[in-house]
Amino acid sequence: MFIPYSFIEVESIFSQFIFSTIIYTAVVATYFIFCHGKYGQTLGKKIMGIKVLDVSEDATIGFLRAFYRELPWIVSEVALFVYILVFVFNKQSIEGYEMTEFMISFIWMCLELITMFLNDKRRAIHDFLAGSVVVKV
To answer: What is the pTM of this model?
Structure first.
């Protein structure tokens, strides 16, 4: 009987998944925190002609508030990562992972949109956490 993956290959693939997920999350979070904290905008925001400033619209938000602004995304990435780890270490299938990830993202997006449309400056939840606002440049 031919088994396509040996235990060592599965362990290697899992180790690569863990490593790549950690690196991906760290790089993306660092990019957004650095760009919003120092310049007030990422490359995409620069192209679109918008900028993240403090609520008074006078200055950039700095690194700490940029971290607070990205915190919901970081928490969701870590939570989904832990979700996968728990299922894998318990040797259970992660078939529902994509649906779970989709539902969490969809619910968060709806909450962000509702919050954004219910205030004058169109601030979403992550903007309230950071004391920031997005403005046209």
So the answer is: 0.81
